[in-house]
Design brief:
2 copies of one chain form a homodimer. With about 160 residues, chain A is mainly alpha-helical. In chain A, about 60% of the residues lie in helices and about 10% in strands. The first copy, chain A, binds a DNA duplex (30 and 30 nucleotides) through helix 1 and helix 4.
DNA sequence: GCGGAATAGTTAGCAGAGGTAATGAGTTAT
DNA sequence: ATAACTCATTACCTCTGCTAACTATTCCGC
C-alpha cells in the first residue's frame, strides 16, 4: 500500500465523515469526467445512452418514468435520451397495454447487439485500469461499487 | 449486509473486471448526478468551482495549467472556471514571477473563508448519508476513495 | 356517468460544464 | 533574429441536466 505517497491531491484526510465526503466527492467527480472522456470514435453512444441501454438489458422493458427513476434523472431528461436512442434505432417505444398515458421502452435487436459490443469497448479503459490494481484494491472497489450506487439511490 | 436484496439495479455481477467496470461506472455516474443536484440555495458555488477552491486550499497557489491537469479538464475549461471564481472574488490571478505566459491562481481571504463554510454545507448531504452507513461500509469507502481518485489520475 | 384531481409524458426554454480550433503573448532554441 | 514551442485565452459548439407549462389519460367522489 504505497500509493498514498505519490498522491499529493488526495491526502489521507478522510478520517472524519466530512473529510470522507469531500474525498469521495472529488474522486467520483474526476473519475466520472475521465469516463466521459474515454469515449472512442467508434463508440457513438454517450455515457447516458449506454446507461439506459444497460438498464434495459438488465431489467427488460420499462416505462419512461421507471427509466428516469432508475437513472435518477427527471422525466424530461429521460424523454430526450430515449428519443435519441429511438432515432438511432436502438430502442423501440410502444404504448402501454392498459394505461394509455405510459410509454413502454424496449431494446431493439440492434440495441441489444450494440449494448454488448459497446459495453465491452466502453469499459475497456476502466477495466484495463482495474486490471492494473492489486487484487486487494479490486476487492475494495467490488465492495464499494454497490455502496456508491446505494448512496445515489437514497431519496 | 442485506442491502443487495432490495437493489434490482445493481446486482452482484461485479465478479469479472468488465462487470466491476460497468458497476463502478454506473455507481459513479449516478452518485455524481445526485451530488450535483444536492446544492442548496445558499451555496452559490458550483461543484467544479468548489473542486478548484479545494485544490487551491490543499496545494497552495497553482497556475491555470496545473489546475486543469489536477482536475483533469482542458485548459480552456479551467480558464472559464477560474474567471468565474475571480469575478466572485474567491481567487486572485497574478502574473507568474519569471514566466510571463503563465498565470498564478491563489485563494483570496474571502475564498479561504468560503471554502470552509461551503465545504461543510456542500458535503452535508453526502456526509449525512455516510453517517447512515455501517462502520464497515464507511471503512470500505474510506479505502475506495483514494483508489477512485487514482483511477482518474492515470493517463 | 361525469367533473375534478392526479399521473405520465412531452415541449420549450435555460444553465452548467465540457470539448476543439484558432489566436495572442511570451519563452526557448538555433 | 527568427523560428518553434508553450501557456492562456477567445470563440463556438455539444451534451446533459433542470424547471415550468401543457396535453392526454386515468382515477375518484358524488
Amino acid at each position: 500500500m504505497s500509493y498514498a505517497n505519490d498522491m499529493p491531491t488526495v491526502e489521507k484526510v478522510a478520517r472524519t465523515d466530512a473529510g470522507l465526503a469531500a474525498e469521495l466527492r472529488l474522486g467520483v467527480m474526476r473519475l466520472r469526467r475521465r469516463l466521459a472522456g474515454e469515449r472512442h470514435p467508434d463508440n457513438e453512444l454517450s455515457l447516458n445512452q449506454m446507461g439506459v441501454l444497460g438498464v434495459l438489458a438488465r431489467r427488460g422493458e420499462l416505462t419512461v418514468g421507471e427509466l428516469a427513476a432508475a437513472e435518477k434523472v427527471q422525466p424530461p431528461s429521460m424523454t430526450r435520451t430515449v428519443n435519441c436512442l429511438e432515432e438511432s434505432g436502438d430502442v423501440v417505444k410502444s404504448p402501454h397495454p392498459t394505461d394509455g398515458r405510459q410509454v413502454v421502452v424496449g431494446l431493439s435487436d440492434q440495441g441489444r447487439d450494440r449494448v454488448l459490443a459497446d459495453r465491452a469497448r466502453r469499459d475497456a479503459w476502466l477495466a484495463q485500469r482495474l486490471r492494473e490494481l492489486t487484487p486487494e484494491e479490486r476487492a475494495v472497489l467490488r465492495q464499494a461499487a454497490p455502496i456508491l450506487d446505494r448512496l445515489a439511490q437514497q431519496d
